[in-house]
Amino acid sequence: MEEKYLKKQRIYKTIMLIALTAFITCILTTIFLANKYDLGNGKDTISSLIGNTSEETDNLTTSIKNIENLINKYYLNDIDEQKAIDAAIDGYVSSLGDPYTEYIPAKEMKEYTENLMGNYVGIGIYMVKNTEKNAIEVLTPIKESPAEEAGILPEDIIVSVDGVEYTGDDMTTAANNIKGEEGTTVKLEILRGTEKLQFEITRRKINTNPVISKKLDNNIGYLEISSFDEGTATDFKAKFEDLRSQGITSLILDLRNNGGGLVDEALQIADYIVPKGKDLLITVDKNEKEEIKKAEQDVLIDMPIVVLVNKNSASASEILAGALKDLDEATIVGTTTYGKGVIQQVLSLRNGSGLKVTVEEYYTPNRTKINGIGIEPDEKVELPETVTNPLVVKEEEDTQLKKAIEILK
Questions:
Q1: Is 326 part of the annotated catalytic residue set?
Q2: pLDDT tens figures, 173-225
Q3: Where do the CATH 2.30.42.10 domains begin and end in the chain?
Q4: Cα separation of 90 and 103, whole Å?
Q5: Is residue 218 classed as helix, strand or coil in its secondary structure?
Q6: C-alpha span between 12 and 26 (Å, rounded)
Q7: Is residue 315 annotated as part of the catalytic site, yes or no?
Q8: Domain 212-408 adopts which CATH fold?
């Protein structure tokens, strides 16, 4: 059920076109970005790109070469060599049966890396095609983006970009023209109801998943992290310090529907809470080599904490929630997490393509296995049956948040 739901979310996000760049299509990701693994000196061939070195004895290389010769000899039409190479490598990688290991063709690598980091240059809007009107409709502006600051609203219709009018069929072209260099401007003509509005918006670097903060009653702080992107830990720290200056005495950390992201960002946030020298994460590779990540700095957040999780809390979210639970630094409230306890490494190949490959399994500080199991909350609380979409929960129906507030009172 969880995998089916998350797959639907990936499909939904994939079909969404975003003015700043393509959206992150995989919400289940736990990534190391550092070059922990040696790639060697790959060359632009099928054999070397997937790590094979002996052309004379390798069955894969021989088979591919035989097929290539037959295609060249008999196939009627022209052959796109690069497309064939990409498809062959993708087939080899797909045969592993690992949903988290994937090949990224060179033409997609730059966009993939930008998506992974969660930072873009643009104005910050999600757009969809309004099929009834054959128009480009704003799904929503991204929080704290230039579009939101300028006053762009959900359901606004984009009529023109820099004086050029577009229909829904032209959405890709329009999106490409809305994108641009940081510091430059774009002029949008918007139809809102029957009123036409003009906006001139300056493009800038966008954080698609900012940390959301607010102060609740009883001096309770609330911080929501929807993804661990580049800079999330820094954003988290700044938002926490602002809440602390407002006099909060306890904290709710909302990791519900957070599909993961960068390991180092999650560990940095754990380091703000866990005493120096304590274990945060244990990883084990295919050779049974174990590595232990420890807290490295003095405690920043020394107050009662409740962490909210649900079935869509995965990967790096589970790393953070698992560490805080094992070390008694927080009370976990909600439902059992997704159970993705493996870590991927993004490898950049010499021809510009990339390979995201599962390299390690991780365990919590108490050596609790997460993969395929998930993290059990200390307080199991389901949302009411009236909530049909866990991504959109009205405050009056949010029984999990209410339980967190009750605990911290």
A1: yes
A2: 998 899 889 999 999 999 999 999 999 999 998 877 889 999 999 999 999 99
A3: 119-207
A4: 6
A5: helix
A6: 11
A7: yes
A8: 2-enoyl-CoA Hydratase; Chain A, domain 1 (3.90.226)
